[in-house]
Amino acid sequence: MIAAKTASPEETRERILTAAREVIARKGKRGATTREIAEVAGVNEATLFRHFGSKDALIIEVAKHFCGVIALRDVAAQLRGPLTEDLLAMGRVMLERMESQQDMIRWSLVEIEYENDIFASTAWRPQLAIHGVIVEVLERYTASGELRGDPKQLAKLFMGLIFMHVLARHKFPDSDLHGDAESALQYYVDFFLNGVRNRS
After folding, report:
1. Among 62, 82, 102, residue at a domain's last position
2. Which residue segment(s) compose the domain that 48 sits in?
3. Residues 53 and 135 reside in one and the same domain
4. pTM of the prediction?
5. Which of 30, 63, 78, 88 has its CA 20 to 30 A from that of 71?
6. What is the DSSP string of 124-180?
7. Mean pLDDT per 10-residue run, the chain (200 residues)?
8. Under a CB-based contact definition with an 8 Å cutoff, are residues 129 and 67 in contact?
């Protein structure tokens, strides 16, 4: 349990979000209760509800807070090319965040129906927010003719490569791709841009 102390509203909110993530990692979204989350955060349930309104709203805020879209948006805003370097920069942020979010990825895969119910009231989804940032970057390159194809589909493909890497790391631990993250990212960017067919 986080020690109770006088805290600003922002600090209290952060403690509740962190506690919610911890409890959900152990119990799942269905099994996590607001009472246990409040206890771990060192607050009473009334405080939790005052900040978030409901358990479902809290879960949405946990996803928003920890998904990494803000960090990705900050990096994307500074990208100026070349294309390979821009993709590597975005890939680094995505890979780092996904590696640190494996608990959240598990929730979304295991409790997909429950998650769909929770997010039914909002158009926001972590993956859609991240996808939107990547689309904006790739649109510049399709508009200039450096990339061909639909930026929305290209963004899904790029995201899928990073997502697959994080999930497959435990399934294929002996793979050369899972030793050095930077080498893996360079491989994925090369694959994304050039494919694997020998054109010589």
Report:
1. 62
2. 9-62
3. no
4. 0.83
5. 30
6. --HHHHHHHHHHHHHHHHHHTTSS-S-HHHHHHHHHHHHHHHHHHHHH-TT-GGGT-
7. 67 97 91 96 96 94 92 96 96 93 82 75 83 97 96 97 86 75 92 86
8. yes
